[in-house]
Amino acid sequence: MPDNKQGVFCISLDFELQWGVFEKMKVDNSANNYFENTRYAIPQMLELFVDHGIHATWATVGMIYNEDFEMWTINKPALTPTYNNQNVNSYGWIELNHEKINSSNLFAPALVELIAQTPGMEIATHTYSHYYCQEKGQTVSQFKADLGKAKELALSKGISIESLVFPRNQFNGEYMEACHQLGIKSVRTNPDKWYWDTSQKDTFKVKIMRTGDVWFPINKKSVIPFDSIDVSKSPLSIPASRLYRAWTKNRILNTLKMKRIFSEMTKAAKTGGLYHLWWHPHNFGYHPNECLSELKAILQHYSFLCKEYGLLSMNMKGLRNHLIKI
Question: For residue 25, what pLDDT is reported?
């Protein structure tokens, strides 16, 4: 296992654009502004990552690779998910709404290329269609067709996909063999807490616990010991530590949140554990500059911990390679 003096700071991002929230967000000018801010923030994130020597994983919805709706139609997989709840089916949604959606809210191949060309960045997959692996009605064959299409489009851009993040964190252990067959070597899993178990109903109590944990030490095990990660399995399950929640107008809550992140990063550096922070780039859509300022502070703290304690920055692919060699 890694030297006790060398912890690892891992960042993974769920790059979705409107595919990640299509069933929740109206198709209107407010959505256009939100994703315009998102597209503004992404190059700024990349600059900050480069400035601080950060390696990060961008789990990208495969549909983003398309140039437009016409290309999306051509690239439709032979099998698509047969969810019982068709409100969560991105295929039906875009077919009904594509004429009134700003296409740049959905398709951004130039951004994918920018990310891929940035040192230290890993392009991973968030499935092709933002596929829900715990929805009733869908099958493993449909999942494999979806994931296969995501890998196919990435490969057409010269990108080899090795890591995956399940949309909505709907981790499905039964689908890990399908991931292995399609060349996925690492998968992000949820924190080991009951309120992050996505197979359970998203109750009010669950929401309260997840939100409260942002500011208060409900989960006291957010730093992950390396010896708790089973490197013999493929794909390798890499647990998440914490979701970065976007800046709000409440200064006290922002301070509590940042203090919590700094404290956990410091613990990982001092104890030689893993601290895995994640978010969606579109989380910066309401207050991009304020969120970027918080991100800069987080990365400055990483730089301090790197210098003081040897804290390493790794994306998911790099972390897997690091662990299996030890």
Answer: 87
Q: Give the span between the Cα atoms of 277 and 301, in whole angstroms.
A: 14
pLDDT digits (tens, 9 = 90+) for 142-164: 999 999 999 999 999 999 999 99
Give the Cβ contact number of residue 306 at 10 Å. 18
Among 96-105, 156-165, 202-211, the range scoring the smallest mean pLDDT is: 202-211
Residue 58 — left, alpha, or beta (φ > 0 → left; ψ -120 to 50 → alpha)? Answer: beta
In the numeric block, the tokens 């994983």 are attached to 57
Virtual torsion, Cα 114, 118, 122, 125, nearest 10 deg? -10
Rounded Cα distance, 250 and 246, in Å? 11
Q: List CB contacts of 190: < 8 A, sequence separation 6 or more.
A: 169, 171, 196, 197, 198, 239, 240
HSE-CB for 274 with a 13 A CA cutoff? 28
Yes or no: domain 8-324 corresponds to CATH 3.40.50.1000:
no
Question: In the chain, where are the structural domains located?
Answer: 8-324
Segments in 119-191 forming alpha helices (H): 140-156, 176-181
pLDDT, one tens digit per residue, over 31-69 is 999 999 999 999 999 999 999 999 999 999 999 999 999
Of 212, 211, 291, 189, which is closest to residue 249 (Cα–Cα)?
Answer: 291
